[in-house]
Amino acid sequence: MRSDQEIVALLLETANSDERIRAVILNGSRANPNAPRDPFCDFDVVFLVTDVAPFDRNREWLDRFGEIMIMQVPEEMQTPPPSKDGGFTYLMQFTDGSRIDLGIYPLSAVEARTGDSLTVVLLDKDGIIPPLPPPSEKDYLPQPPTPKAFADCCNEFWWVGPYVAKGLWREQLPYARTMLDRVLRDELTRMAGWYVGVRTGFSRNPGKFGKYLQRYLEPELWALFEQTYSDAGYEHSWDALLSMGQLFRTLALAVADHFRFEYPQGDDARVTAYLERIRSLPKDAAAVF
């Protein structure tokens, strides 16, 4: 596997040898002074160029970056739809384990492409990039919730709980686990981000999908968070659902107390009782109650 220094040197050599490439910027985790370094850190790089089209028409020039195991071009995908912002990106995973996400953008996009707080200028041939502050996580810190955002998060969490229960009772595993692992977990992670914000004065980044939550949750809350994951067993999935409710309640009450929001105790109590009822409901039942 190539070293970080080798990848950076290759990127700069490529840019310096091509008059069409006028600037190179680095974003993402490698621009983040607080992000841990490991072999899986991507190089999120942008080339600002005089003309985007030639870099797309002939892709043989990408061979210089190494043997590609697999590549994706988001602008060519149907789902999600492309952004159509004047540029495009080559997401390249190489056979040696390295990964480069290389964006190609016109010079006119300089302001948009350098507006991220995690931006480091690697090359600027023409001085087109204004002085930037030191890279920081400023744009990625959780923001305090509004009363509406908090209420919506609570409502969505407790609204979706019965969907999970219905899927588990019917033994429709894909449906139940999608609702549990995608919809409910999204709301739990959102609430956990606010909880971390309250604990840290909104000065710490819980990370994409909450990947850094273990750093900031108390050990007993992290242990409960771990219990929200399970194997495919239905009983274990029920345990995970109820653990998720317990953790959400704990986090949300702390957030509500800090901001003097109203927590929907009635929704929580009624839905929790309903979930427990469905769990114990016989498989030949003709009615819930």
Fold topology:
Elements: H1 4-16, E1 21-27, E2 43-49, H2 53-57, E3 68-72, E4 88-94, E5 99-106, H3 110-113, E6 119-124, H4 147-169, H5 173-200, H6 213-216, H7 219-226, H8 234-259, H9 265-279
Parallel strand pairs: 2-5
Antiparallel strand pairs: 1-2, 1-6, 3-4, 4-5
Helix pairs in contact: 4-5, 4-8, 4-9, 5-8, 8-9
Structural features, described:
This protein is an alpha+beta fold. It has 2 domains: 136 residues, Beta Polymerase, domain 2 (2-Layer Sandwich), CATH 3.30.460.10; 139 residues, Four Helix Bundle (Hemerythrin (Met), subunit A). It has 9 helices and 6 strands. It has a 6-stranded mixed β-sheet with strand order 3-4-5-2-1-6, covered by helices on one side. α4 runs antiparallel to α5. The longest helix has 28 residues. The radius of gyration is 24 Å and the shape is elongated. The mean pLDDT is 95.
Percent helix, as a range, is 40-55%
Proportion of strand residues: 5-15%
Q: Could you say how many structural domains there are in total?
A: 2
Low-confidence stretches: none
| Separation of the first and last Cα atoms | 61 Å
* Annotated CATH topology of the largest domain: Four Helix Bundle (Hemerythrin (Met), subunit A)
The helix count comes to: 9
How do the strands of the widest beta sheet line up side by side? 3-4-5-2-1-6
Taking all residues together, what is the mean pLDDT? 95
- What is the general shape? elongated
Task: Find the structural class using helix and strand composition.
Answer: alpha+beta
So what's the CATH class of the largest domain? Mainly Alpha
Q: How large, in whole angstroms, is the Cα Rg?
A: 24 Å
Q: What's the architecture of the largest domain, going by CATH?
A: Up-down Bundle
